[in-house]
Design goal:
The chain is built from 3 helices and 4 strands; from the N terminus they run αβαββαβ. The protein has about 110 residues and is of the alpha/beta class. It starts with a helix and ends in a 24-residue tail after the last strand.
């Protein structure tokens, strides 16, 4: 995975203030991605994002709230979010996959 793979890609990370999610956010930022984090801070903490607070777009709220979800997606419809990648539920440890793939995929590929 190189910087050119992620440079200027728009990525939404939900649960990005969790221990695992924040590490992912830091790595994506280091690789040059434009990262937006959506987290309700129920299990995550802002302190986990200390390495990149000025380099991310953080939104606090619950994605079950339609108004919040629209705000995070800049008002776009669900199937037209303005992101190249969506990394979802990164903070749910028991549901998290054993590996996180950080290689860009084509739009035809399903995440």
């Amino acid at each position: 995975m190189s910087k050119s793979d992620w440079g200027q890609r728009r990525v939404l990370v939900t649960g990005g203030a969790s221990f695992i999610g924040s590490r992912l956010v830091d790595r994506l930022v280091d690789l040059g991605a434009q990262v937006r984090v959506a987290d309700d801070l129920s299990s995550g903490r802002l302190e986990n994002l200390h390495d990149s607070p000025d380099r991310i777009d953080f939104h606090q709220g619950d994605l079950r709230d339609r108004d919040f979800t629209r705000a995070v997606g800049d008002g776009e419809a669900r199937n037209r979010l303005p992101f190249d990648r969506l990394l979802w539920r990164t903070g749910l440890h028991r549901h998290a996959p054993s590996r996180v793939r950080l290689e860009p995929r084509t739009r035809r590929d399903r995440i």
